[in-house]
Amino acid sequence: QVDIVESGGGLVQPGGSLRLSCVVNEYGFSTLHMGWYRQAPGQQRELVAAILTYGAKKYLESVRGRFTISKDNAKNTVYLEMNALKPEDTGIYYCNRDPPLLPWGQGTQVTVSS
């Protein structure tokens, strides 16, 4: 059984920063393309950022330049550094493979509000 545990969310003011972490209990983690997904209230889940096994990264246009995805294969962990946060970044953030082939974890709530 695969376990995904996301953490690091919280309430932050516009312009603030958060760092999300995701530990993935999956064999062969270093060979996986991994992504961070966001589900805003009343909207479908969308891919926000992804990191490929050979190091290439891709971002949703609205977060490019503000968010940075990284991966530590020794710790089976994916990170999402989020800066200059905006109210529209509010949502539940999940990590999964890209495409999302693993069971979803609980996610971590990010709320950007003054």
What would your notes on this structure say?
By secondary structure, the protein is mainly β. 0% of the residues lie in helices and 48% in strands. Strands 2-10-9-4-5-6 form a six-stranded mixed β-sheet, with no helix packed on it. It is globular and about 40 Å long. The mean pLDDT is 95.
Shape designation: globular
What's the assembly state of these chains? Answer: single chain
Strand count:
10
In the sheet with the most strands, the strands line up as: 2-10-9-4-5-6
Helical residue percent band: under 10%
Report Rg. 13 Å
Enumerate how many helices there are, as a single number. 0
Beginning-to-end CA distance, first to last residue = 40 Å
Portion of residues in beta strands equals over 45%
Task: Please describe the biggest sheet, giving its number of strands, its sense, and whether it closes into a barrel.
Answer: 6 strands, mixed
Write the H/E string, N to C.
EEEEEEEEEE
What ranges have pLDDT less than 50 throughout 5 or more consecutive residues?
A: none
- Based on secondary structure, the structural category is mainly beta
Mean pLDDT: 95
